[in-house]
Design brief:
Elements (H helix, E strand, L loop, with lengths): L9 H27 L11 H21 L5 E3 L12 H15 L21 H8 L11 E9 L1 H5 L5 E8 L2 E13 L9 E8 L4 E5 L6 E2 L9 E5 L7 H11 L2 E5 L3 H8 L4 E4 L19 H9 L3 E4 L19 E4 L2 H13 L6
Parallel strand pairs: 1-2, 8-9, 8-10
Antiparallel strand pairs: 2-3, 3-4, 4-5, 5-6, 6-7, 10-12, 11-12
Helix pairs in contact: 1-2, 1-3, 2-3, 2-4, 6-9, 7-8
């Protein structure tokens, strides 16, 4: 099955795939050179491998977007102010080198040199830093904008587990395109020890697909049925209410499966999981729950929906992507493979006694 199409957002889809693919190349290089081969760096308080990967991957994605769609605002996690400090000169040089090498890789089918790709392009250090800063848009309800999360799942990345490069296009508060690159995710769930690295693509009204890192072999989602029904949840306890999720899982006879990053959305969309729950961890005093950012869920939400699933907050209300960079009051998220199961999960959450930390 080919992803080539004259349908709506066809150009945006190919641009997004190219940007995510090349950003994945950056993150793999960072892990191989700075994390796996030089483990002493992991003891640094600033977690410099992740910093290098975040900056370089965002520079790659923003460069491609800025060349292809110069009028579109971008919402990203990183700004380049710290890189401009003289004390970070070595870090800056590394970021520039990583981003430049990824952008100058030879073109493959579906890519265009006009997007800033290929060996003929050369960007200065200042130009790349300016490109990173392009991700400072404030968001809003009445605009066309891109969201970028260059490395989603920091701890998964550091330990060689799951992480994701995430990109979405939002038009007037609706997510219309999502692309997620998962360099460490197995290509097929039935063969976890086989090849790794895949990209997930969804366009509103056009379905969801999994492709290889080279952009080939499109498989329509979902395509896998596991022996058990899993509830996917975060590996990071600070981000979720584990006791509540456990109660809901027991009520619905689901097996818990912890995983970092938006790779959870990808596994749900291709059929590996039945439910993805992200409930805010209990807080004390006047402390408010963590406010989720739109880049944390926009790509995964459309992937689930286009694979035939459903996603809402924990009360069954639609997710809000037009409130700015954040998503408003955090009531948790429920994503399921089908609507009937979704209703059961939301009901179980409402009926569950309040879990204590």
């Amino acid at each position: 099955m080919s992803l080539t199409s004259s349908e709506a957002f066809s150009l945006e889809k190919h641009v997004a795939i190219a940007a995510v693919r090349r950003a994945c190349l950056v993150t793999c290089t960072v892990f191989n050179q700075l994390v796996r081969d030089r483990t002493d760096i992991l003891r640094k308080e600033d977690e410099s491998p992740v910093t290098v990967g975040d900056y370089a991957a965002q520079a790659v994605v923003n460069t491609v977007l800025r060349n292809a769609f110069p009028k579109d605002p971008i919402i990203g996690e990183e700004g380049a102010d710290a890189l401009r400090q003289e004390s970070n000169a070595r870090l800056r040089e590394r970021v520039v080198s990583l981003a430049t090498n990824a952008l100058k890789e030879d073109l493959i089918d579906g890519e265009d040199a006009q997007w800033g790709l290929g060996s003929q392009h050369e960007l200065s250090s200042d130009a790349l830093l300016k490109t990173i800063d392009e991700g400072n848009d404030t968001g809003g309800s009445d605009k066309r904008m891109w969201t970028v999360d260059p490395i989603d799942g920091t701890k998964g990345f550091l330990r060689g587990g799951q992480y994701a490069v995430c990109l979405s296009l939002i038009v007037n508060s609706q997510v219309v395109l999502g692309v997620i690159g998962c360099p460490n995710l197995s290509i097929h769930p039935a063969d976890p020890d086989g090849g790794k690295g895949c990209i997930f693509v969804a366009v509103r009204g056009q379905g969801a697909f999994q492709i290889t890192m080279s952009g080939t072999g499109a498989i329509k989602l979902p395509y896998f049925r596991p022996e058990k029904s899993y509830v996917l949840q975060s590996e990071e306890p600070k981000h979720t209410n584990i006791p509540l999720i456990r109660r809901v899982s027991d009520e619905l006879h689901l097996t818990e499966w912890g995983m970092d990053s938006q790779a959870k959305y990808c596994c749900l969309a291709r059929g590996e999981g039945a439910v993805y729950l992200r409930m805010p961890a209990p807080t004390t005093g006047d402390k408010k729950p963590y406010e989720e950012r739109i880049w944390d869920h926009a790509p995964g939400s459309i992937l689930v929906e286009e694979a035939g699933g459903k996603i809402t907050n924990s009360e069954g209300a639609p997710l809000q992507f037009g409130l700015g960079r954040g998503m408003g009051e955090n009531r948790g998220f429920v994503a399921t493979v089908d609507e009937e199961l979704h209703e059961r999960v939301v009901s179980a959450i409402k009926q569950a006694p309040k879990a204590r930390a």
